[in-house]
Every structure is written in structure tokens, then in C-alpha cells.
Amino acid sequence: MTQHLTAPAPTAPAADTAPGWWRDAVIYQVYPRSFADADGDGMGDLPGIRARLPYLRELGVDAVWLSPFYASPQADAGYDVADYRAIDPMFGTLADAEALIADARALGLRTIVDLVPNHSSDQHAWFRQALAEGPGSPLRERYHFRPGKGTDGELPPNDWESIFGGPAWTRTADGEWYLHLFAPEQPDFNWEHPAVRDEFRSILRFWLDIGVDGFRVDVAHGLIKAEGLPDIGAGEQVKLLGNEVMPFFDQDGVHAVYRDWRALLAEYGDDRVLVAEAWTPTVERTAHYVRPDEMHQAFNFQYLSTYWDAEALREVIDASLAAMRPVGAPTTWVLSNHDVTRHATRFANPPGGTQLRTPGDRALGLRRARAATLLMLALPGSAYVYQGEELGLPDVTDLPDEVRQDPSYFRAAGQDGFRDGCRVPIPWTIEGPSAGFGPGGSWLPQPAGWGGLSVEAQTGDPTSTLELYRAALAVRREHPGLGAGQEITWLEAPEGVLAFARPAFACTANTTGAPVRLPAPGRPLLASQGAAPAVAEDGTVELPADTTVWWTV
């Protein structure tokens, strides 16, 4: 395959060692559609989130990241934005957003909002005017409009494929084609155009003035395309989650954009942050996004994609820490989000990628998920928690075809199209028409017995996954050996076991399906399954199968 990379990225400034709240923050992702519904229309909304903020404070997280709530036709669940300064009526009003941000701050929670700069909705005012004015319109230069190939321009301008399947180009009524790396309703901006850059500076200021603490930047690796939009090559399959070098992803020109944004955020103080959703070929490439004058954090998708296996986990942990060390950025850790199968279901199946269609062994998946959570929270840096994982929710793998709404489900050869399973509204109460999600139904059907996994059902039960998360986050906040930092010391351990030390702290994780005996590194503090194991007279301990234990040293 032909690789399309621009010149090497500029040399980074000295590593960033300045303190910052984001360096060890636990950030909770709220998917607004599915978190809490205040008005009973079956769709989650901002007032619903606002009412549940005390729950998040009690859980012990530091910040809330809100997936898109902007005005949108909802062709891709809000990632097709028609107006970046307006709230979609299904979620509430701008006043609701301002009140939510203010309430969160009063509770000691910071707020991060999604920003979608790679593409807009096809209903965005710019794109609608570009279509109306036709070829040669100055507005078309703000997107990627091109004549087609073939005798009558009937073929797409190049061979790029949409992440959602099919060509990445759609032909307009006047014969030109426009680029969309995702759905046809999501035309890509041309980030070489100064008007696009000016507009997003203005959007950043709008939300910073309202009081947000930062931005999670969607498809941060996609803004700049290789010069000339070159073909990829016959037979190459485009995958968002892959590690191939593509002419539309991870081009070095994106870094000038983020250096500009970092300078803009600095005008508002040193506590506003940028978080990159950047799928890159390597963690070393990811580190380019978090150099001291660019973003503050980048999602660690290599870690998310790693199966419950000690050798593979150690390899990605070492690579992640090593990649971030030269730039001084905190390493981030994440197990689930709104685009992948929940880890309680991924780990219930044999290794099979990040989107699965089978429920697997539910008990095994939950046991591994709990152990993986304690391992993640013990690592140095910042961690992300996706709504409902603290309840041990599995993916809903048996949704009827007629209720699915993921756009990639309806387009052949794209993502697997089963992202709806991790987006089913979460349960709050044991009883009720939508298990407490709201006074009515829910936009995606909840499984029978969903209330048995609810916040109400798990609160106060010391064996529940919710109480495990609450306990772990409390210990993480108070223990001096947890949180920020870059270093861990690996300890000798049997095959299939991870063991490492941090100051006054140790963690052991048994990824095998059988108990393992090993030297106890200290006094047991917290276990992912059952009571903390007892230390024998000879100083050894039996670590149960698929279990992580924290130790005070």
C-alpha cells in the first residue's frame, strides 16, 4: 500500500511538566441521548443530566464529558452539526446548557464538551448555500467539492471510501462531488481555507465564554487531507479503528491547528483543556497531538483495543508510557465509549475486535471487566469512564433490526454497525417504564430485567460493581501512590499475571482463568472480586482467576 505522509512534524518544545487537573482526572463520558430523560419524550436531555450531577459527584469523578448536544438533523446522533452555537431542541436550550455547566462547577465537577471540526451537517448554513450557489461558489471552497472522473464526470474524484461504507463522495444535482469521510449528511470541511479556521476560533470562544473547561475534539486526526487528495490504491479497505496510514488521517498539518487552539485557550487561563480523539498508526504518532504547545490529552485507543491478556497489556502499557514521557503529557486509559462494544461484553468473548455481535459468557465478562477497571485506575495518568460501565452493563447484542439507528448499520462494508448496543439508555431504578431513565419510554428498547442492574439496585450492595467503582475512585483520590505520574516498576510475577509498584502502592492482576499463588507485595487494600485475599504465613497470597488486587506497600 502506498503511504501518504507529509513532512515530519516539527520538533517539540521541551516536555511539559506544569501541573494541571487533567493529569490524573477521572472523566465520565455522558452520552446525552441515553443518560437521563427529564421531559418524558424517551430521549435523554440536558435537564436530565443536570438532575443527575450529584450522582456523578458521589461516584467520585472529576469531570463530565458531554457528547454532542448541538442543533442537528441527527443523521449520526448529533455528530452532524448544523449550528455549533445552538442546542438541539430534543436536548433543551442554551439556558439549560449554561445551568448545567454552572451546577457542575458548584459541585466541583468540570465540564468538557464535544467539538466536531472535521465535518458539519449537510444542513449547515454554509453547505446549504454552497449547494444553492452551484459550481464556482466561494462557499464550496470551505468544503471539498471536486469534478468527477470519467467521460461525463460520473465517477468519484478518487478511490477513498467512507468510514461508514461505500464511496467517500456524493454527487450533487449539478454534477460536482463532495467529500464525506463519514455519512453523506456529513460533508468534510476544507481546513486549508482561512474562513474555516476563523469560524472554529469563534466557536471555541463562544463556549469558553459560557464556562466550559475544555473540548474533546472529534476525529482530531482527520482535519487535514494530503495535498491533491491522492488515491489510496486498489483493494485497500478503510477502517477507522485500523492502524494503516491514510491520506486523509493523521496528516502533520493538523498540528498547526492545535497549536493555534492551545494559544487561544491560554487566554482563558491555564486550566482549560483540549482532548484529542485521534486514531493513529502508533502511540508514538498519538504523542504528537499532546506536545506541550498542542493538546493536553489524547485518547489511548491502543489500550482500549487490547484484550484481557497480561502479555499484550504489559506491552501496550509500556509503549503508552514511553510515548508520552518525552512530551510530558499524561497517559490516558479507557476501556469503553459510545463507539465500541462495552468491555464487559468484549471480555466475555474470545478476542474479536472492538465491535462484537455475541453476548458471550456474561459472568466471565463482568468478572474480567471489574478486574480491568481496577488495573486501569491503578495506572499513572488520567482515566475515562463511559456511562453505565460503573453498573457493569453489558452491550445489548439482540436489538431488533427495525429499532437500530447507527448510520453505519445501513451502509455496507463500513463499521460493523452495531454501536447501538452500547447506547441503550442506562437504568436508574429497579421499577418504572424505562428503569428510571425517564417518565416515559426510551429511544432504544432496554432489555428485560435492566432494572436489576440499576443504580438503585446496586447502591449499598458491597458486592456490586457500582460500589466497587465508588470504593476504587475514593481510594484513587486519597492514596498518594495513585493518579498522576509516568513511572511504574514491574514486579516479578507468574505467567498471565501483571504486577507493578508505584510509591507506597502495588497492583496485581491475574488475567488467567485459574488461581495463581505469588508473593504478597504488601497489605491488601481492594479486590475486584470478593473480599481482599488473605496473606499466608509464608508471605504468599492466592490471587483468584481474573482478579485485580490493590496493595498498600
Automatic annotation (TrEMBL):
<dbReference type="GO" id="GO:0016787">
    <property type="term" value="F:hydrolase activity"/>
</dbReference>
<dbReference type="Pfam" id="PF00128">
    <property type="entry name" value="Alpha-amylase"/>
</dbReference>
<dbReference type="InterPro" id="IPR017853">
    <property type="entry name" value="GH"/>
</dbReference>
<feature type="domain" description="Glycosyl hydrolase family 13 catalytic">
    <location>
        <begin position="29"/>
        <end position="419"/>
    </location>
</feature>
<dbReference type="InterPro" id="IPR006047">
    <property type="entry name" value="GH13_cat_dom"/>
</dbReference>
<protein>
    <submittedName>
        <fullName>Glycoside hydrolase family 13 protein</fullName>
    </submittedName>
</protein>
<keyword id="KW-0378">Hydrolase</keyword>
<dbReference type="InterPro" id="IPR045857">
    <property type="entry name" value="O16G_dom_2"/>
</dbReference>
<comment type="similarity">
    <text>Belongs to the glycosyl hydrolase 13 family.</text>
</comment>
